[in-house]
Amino acid sequence: MIQIDIMNLLFFELIRVAIGTQNTLSRLPSEAEWEELFEMAVKQSLVGVCFCGIHQLGADSDEGYINIGMSEDLYFDWMGTAAQINMKNEIVNKQCVELQKRLSTDGLRSCALKGQGVATLYGEELRGFRQSGDIDLWVDAPKKDVVDWAKKVGMTEKPGYLHVGVSCFDDTSVELHYRPTYLRSFTHNRRLQQYCESHKADWTERNGMIVPSWEFDVVYQLSHIYRHLFGLGVGLRQLMDYYFVLRASNSNSDSDSNESLKRTLSSLGLYNFAGAVMYVMREVFGLDERYMICSVDEKRGRMLLEQVMRTGNFGHLDEKQKAARSTKAGNVKYKLRQWWKLVRFYPEETLSAPFWSVINR
Questions:
Q1: Tens of pLDDT along 57-71?
Q2: Residues 6+ away with beta carbon under 8 Å from 84
Q3: Hey, which of 57-71, 249-263, 268-282, 298-312 has the most confident mean pLDDT?
């Protein structure tokens, strides 16, 4: 069972203040606690968003940080990092739009997955402070055509099951997807690929960027988080993305649509995991019940939150994982241990994982 210490609770409160589901902290942290909160935000890739929470607490003047018990040095370090994130977002947004136009000129339709695509749902104040990563574009073309285009601009990695890396910008990694995601269960993955194909016609434009529909993102983002649970690990940034997807989709407003979504999640083997994610949505982000896509699964949810707080974004917090995965044999052992922990919660996906890894390595 997860050990929710006082710093985790304060961190969750700061997140809720930032996204507007809580007005203030239950108590003001000490200078030392603010330092620890900053480190937690760094490890979860939430520095920019949490800085917006600091402003909500009243630290929006030259000496506002004094009112919330933060040191001057930390405040300006935090502000400087948030400003860098904002500037990087402006660059990556422009690069994403530019790349979509380049693909379109060559007759290839695309949409922005995750990252810059989901950031368009964050709202005006928070959008620029979501920490960006690489650019992921889903291209509406067969794998061969996508790989051929990648070779023209410069391929940076061997094409995999999902995507190929390309060299388009000096300062931003780019992955071109011919499949948006996958599941390790062969049956569920076949259904997921069919689901993805059926939603290509629903792509739309937001903030000058072609993105998937909200309805698609509810399923896609969930499957993406699920996949990372079996891989490097899940961070709060990914789950915050899902919070904003749920707020945008508001699937529960239409009972027929919500029942259809539940059937889809069940057919993909994602329903139990959705219940775990709803627990995190409630405990960390304060998601209102009307936005939830299914009932909260507290048992699975506690396990998920423990993993999130232990591993951090893409496993950056997990020193044992880093040490174990430094060798090929150690990497295999780590995966097997990780899957063993998950097997009683998600048996079909877990038992399929070793076979998937062998076939698709």
A1: 876 555 667 678 899
A2: none
A3: 268-282
Q: Residue 133 CB: number of other CB atoms within 10 A? A: 17
Contact yes or no for 46/236 (Cβ under 8 A): yes
What DSSP character marks residue 111? E
Query: If DSSP codes are grouped into helix, strand and coil, which group holds residue 357?
Result: helix
Q: Determine contact, residues 217/272, Cβ cutoff 8 Å.
A: no
Compute the chain's Rg from CA coordinates.
20
Q: How many CB atoms lie within 10 A of CB 233?
A: 21
H helices within the chain, ranges in order? 6-19, 31-43, 47-56, 64-67, 72-105, 114-119, 143-153, 186-198, 214-229, 236-249, 255-267, 271-283, 298-311, 319-324, 328-342, 347-359
Summarised one tens digit per residue, pLDDT across range 208-231 is: 899 999 889 999 999 999 999 988
Q: How far is 349 from 233, CA to CA, in rounded Å?
A: 15
How many Å apart are CA 168 and CA 56, to the nearest integer? 38
Which comes out higher in pLDDT, residue 313 or 112? Answer: 112
